[in-house]
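Hey, can you fold this one?
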Amino acid sequence: MAKRERSTRRERPVKGAPTAKDFQGDVRPDWCAGCGDYGVLSSLQNAYAKLGKGNHEHLTVSGIGCSSNLPGYIQTYGMHTLHGRSLAVATGAKFANHEMNVVVTGGDGDGYGIGGNHFIHTMRKNIDLLYIVMDNQIYGLTIGQASPTSLMDMKTKSTPFGNIEAPLNPIAMAIVTGATYVARGFSGNPRQLTELMYNGMQHKGFALIDVFSPCITFNRDNTTAFFKQRVNELEDHDPSDKAAALEQAVKWGDEIPIGLFYQDTSRPALDEMEPVLENGPMAHQPLGITQEQGAAIVQRMM
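Sure. Predicted structure:
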């Protein structure tokens, strides 16, 4: 086999427990000043550090969109995939090496619109992933069209007379579809958001965190000030009670709950039930073919 070229990427040896700084990427984010995604990125870096694993033990996957640029701004393995296909790619990566901590990041258009079908079936299968959706209720990258979570009557470039479509409720949808960790955060509350991410990574099964991450450029309705006046952390709530979780999930108005809505620790993740993985991650298992056979297979696929 050909000798592998030495990587030119700057190595960052970590001594002792990792810190958030160890997960800062080499590229600075180019989001608009004031974008909520900065708060999400910072919270994720803190959550990675709190988990205590090295950079090489994490994979950050995304689709397409402003928020989906995030893997380029964080120091882990990363994949910037196709629009709406991040969960499918992340599922493949997780089954190739289920010991890897796989986190998926994206936006409401990427995840709930273009990727809606993958979203449903990844939850149904309870794939062991953490999915962080930066929900700004607008298509930001394509400069301001209505998204699946845009509110009724909202005026956008694609709905100049007001949005006539009812918004999707990702929290309620996740609870009834099969997600086993369902939470909502706010980029303006990094303390709680970091904790939700940290707990979501440790949860065994599909974890969704829908994050209010305001778009300062194209959504002048659902601003940071709008959410600061309305969000309230869930208190005296039992996340094991599905009916109670759904009751909280449909609340929207002067008060909007954020926090952990639902968690089911009794249902195994799909990789825990897959017999092929009983001998360890597939990436670490022998192929069972000779080097020549492997080269021939690769050649046929080229």
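The two ends are 16 Å apart (CA to CA). Let me know if you want another pass with a different chain boundary.
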